[in-house]
Amino acid sequence: MNGSWLPLLRAEVDRLRWRRAVLLLVLGAVVVTAFTFTVTAWDTRPVSDEEVAEVRQTTYVVSEIDQCTAHPRRYLGPRARGLDADEAARTCEELVLGWYSGRPTLDVASELGNGFIACTVFVVLLLLLMGATFAGHDWSTGSMSNQLLYETRRTRVWLAKALVVGVAGLVVSAVLLGALWGGLLLLASSRDLPVPDAVVADGWAQVARTAVAAALATLLGFALAMLFRSTVATIAVLFALAVSTGGLVAAAGLFSESSRWDPVTNIAALVEGSASYYVDEGLDRECYTSYGEVRGRLPGCDPERTVGAVQGGLYTGLGVVVVGAASVLVHRRRDV
Amino acid sequence: MTTTAPATGAPVIETHGLRKVYRGRKGTHVAVADLDLLVPAGGVHGFLGPNGSGKTTTIRMLLGLARPTSGSMRLFGEEVPARLPAVIGRVGAVVESPKFSPNLTGRQNLRLLSRSIGVPDERVERAVATVGLTGREKDRYKGYSLGMKQRLAIAATLLKDPALLILDEPTNGLDPAGIREVRDTITGLGEQGVTVLLSSHILAEVQQVCSSATIVGRGRLLASGRVEDLLGAVTRHRVTLTPGTHEAGTHEAGTHEAARSAAGVLTSAGLPCEVQDDGSLLVTAEDPTIVTRTLGEAGTWLASLAPVKRDLEDLFLEVTAGQGPGMDMPPDWSGAEQGGAAR
User: Fold this and answer.
1) What is the CATH number of the domain that holds B168?
2) B94 and B181 both lie in a single domain
3) Which among A155, A182, A225, B51 could bridge B325 via Cys, Cβ 3.0 to 4.6 Å?
4) Where is the ABC transporter domain (chain B) (predicted)?
């Protein structure tokens, strides 16, 4: 047959875009992203003049603003430094009105750890399902055996499908989460809220890392479905793993550092840039009180550990590679 | 085992000592047992056998869908599965029931296959027209009748412009007109020089289109060769007795008693025979004069003696006697030929 990969890749792209379940999952990811943006924008919308006027008439609000203006450091903390009286009064008013109007001001930096992460979890799960259903459908309909009558090189078939669905996962997540982050920045800009350059860069870096995580999740779903020849079985296995992994890791003898090898810790590190975990065993004897509590403030006794993005990425990537290798080997040898 | 000289031409399919053993919790099952298969180039070759006889497993191994336990296979002289990528472009195949994505249209399903091998989309339209699906190719596959699904599967095989066509029960679910169309298509392809391996249960149909045939049972080769040679290998004769001529019988005693008496005479003379429902005898003998002489010497006169021409069904039942489906299969192997456990 044709030695080029191009026709096969082209066919797999068509197969992916013609699959209704895939389109529905991508649509679901779009809806989740749009919903996250909409909710964030609505919850942080500026207080209208009418609302402000209404709140401002309330006696205790007026009293609170006066207190803040009189003692700005008590209310504003370090932010009060360098503010003149007018600026302090304006800031106090915004702060107190913000409290009593029941709406926080948009803070894109904190959104990275809240709404953005929630959206990321949903998008990554949907893309994992996309990878699984892309392969599972071929097995459930039996069309895989038909495909192998046209391209008999099974490794090539596996890789072509993996490449297409993996790139699709990367692109979809990058576009959606990039749009979410870009949208939040635009929203902040439209509300004249300054965003430090470092926060902007952090956000884009998180988008990039999340896209990598989403692509790995898509590949994991695909590889497992090729291994088990069923979308349902893949979901069941993933669910079982999610429930039991912590216990399995601990039972494997990795006691004091078991969280270090917990997939959740490592995936969080990959997405967020770093993730903390705590050890409660294996510290020096002097780190423990007579009641067995950790004296965390003593030198060398801090129980908090950090996993970096690279470590988390390597862990996650290696896991996907191991599952992928098993999937390819089984696919090469198994009767279809 | 009956084996006659194959048709001339270099073999397109060859297997030697091909064996497939399925291992499961309830033991092992030999689906194909040391099968030597030879399909010459050109013409239509029937591949016959009872359910569970290893036909589909053999086809799946030839196409790389299943791994043989031992033995060797060649397609167009190339060792498979090692060299399968080099020859698969010349092989079109329908294995078991058609398998396509149900939510895609017939045309989309064909395009996925044609694009995967770099075949232009125009060939899809041609294949659709060839199998008579024009006008329905934009419908979703799940809305197709079984016959239309079969046609689509045959259309898929034509995308490659194959030199070898392997068809596993291609007329399943087709109406009589559809069966005739497929039969004509197969015959036409055979006449054009395409070698067709046709696995089917409809023996009359196989006999109409096949120039050669192989019969397998329990994974073993039972008979193989040109159809005319296979059918001519054993001759049988239908004998009708003249009433009242047998010494031990009278007209009143009835034809059946006379026939049974004559059957005893023939059997004693070493000529196997069966009494038929109509009172005639079916005698197996190479030379019909032996029958007339044996009965004449016993004082029995024949009203008629006519050679019985066997058809493929007779031959099939003869050579596959006791080779019924799943005769010694453990229960969990009933689906082995269908590709293993249901998903």
Assistant:
1) 3.40.50.300
2) yes
3) B51
4) 13-243
Number of domains within chain B: 2
Question: Sheet of B27-40: strands edge to edge?
Answer: B27-40, B11-24, B70-75, B78-80
B31 and B178, same structural domain? yes
Please tell me the number of Cα atoms within 13 Å of B80 on its side-chain side: 28
State the complex-level ipTM: 0.78
Which of B67, B98, B111 shows the shortest C-beta gap to A335? Answer: B67
H or E segment to which residue A3 belongs: none
Among A12, A18, A230, beta carbon nearest to B108: A18
Whole domain around residue B147: which residue ranges? Answer: 2-232+317-338
> Quick one: closest CA in B to A145, which residue?
B65
- Other beta carbons within 10 Å of A34: 15
B343 found inside a domain: no
Residues of chain B positioned with their CB less than 8 A from the CB of A146:
98-100, 113, 156
Q: Do B193 and B48 share a structural domain? A: yes
Look at the block and give the residue holding tokens 């419908």: B139
Residues B294 and B186 in one domain: no
B325 and B254 within one domain: no
Position with higher pLDDT, A185 vs B9: A185
pLDDT tier for residue B289 given thresholds of 50, 70 and 90: confident
Question: Tell me: the pLDDT tens digits for A198-257?
Answer: 999 999 999 999 999 999 999 999 999 999 999 999 999 999 988 887 677 666 655 556
Are A145 and B65 within 8 A, CB to CB?
Answer: yes
Distance CA A226, CA B66 (A): 17
Closest chain B residue by Cα to residue A8: B116
Considering the domain boundaries, does residue B131 fall inside one?
yes
Same-domain pairing of B322 and B285: no
CATH of the domain at B266: 3.30.70.100
Q: How far apart, in whole angstroms, are the C-alpha atoms of residue A15 and residue A18? A: 5
B103 interaction partners in chain A (CB closer than 8 Å): 19-20
Evaluated on CA atoms A149, B127, B151, A161, the torsion sign reads positive
Residues B152 and B295 in one domain: no
In percent, the amount of chain B with pLDDT more than 70 equals 86
* pTM as predicted: 0.80
Extract the tokens encoding B184.
């004509």
Q: Is residue B31 assigned to a domain?
A: yes
